[in-house]
Amino acid sequence: MKINLLLIEDSESDMVLITEYLRTDGFDVNCEMICSEAALKRELADNRWDVVVCDHFMPGFSSSRALEVLHESGQEIPLLVVSGMIDEKVAIDALKAGAFDYV
Description:
Blueprint: E1 2-8, H1 12-24, E2 28-34, H2 37-46, E3 51-55, E4 57-58, E5 61-62, H3 63-73, E6 79-82, H4 88-96, E7 101-102
Parallel strand pairs: 1-2, 1-3, 3-6, 6-7
Antiparallel strand pairs: 4-5
């Protein structure tokens, strides 16, 4: 199955881990990595994405803001929040704001 994945992440090693994990599970992944609000707006306007995976916190950009931008675009694309360290309250807030899930 082919997946067009928009990855909001500032770590190339995390991008490799995520895409290799999906490929190991049999997915044909087309991945674009971005790390800014401007890039997210551009990608949402210019391309079609099946899923957005977003690091919870990066310098100058957060998953909360990514969710807002996604909602403002009017597109119904699932957004998954990924974080090495996320407390329960933050995870619940992300889900209430419209995140599809968090890991």
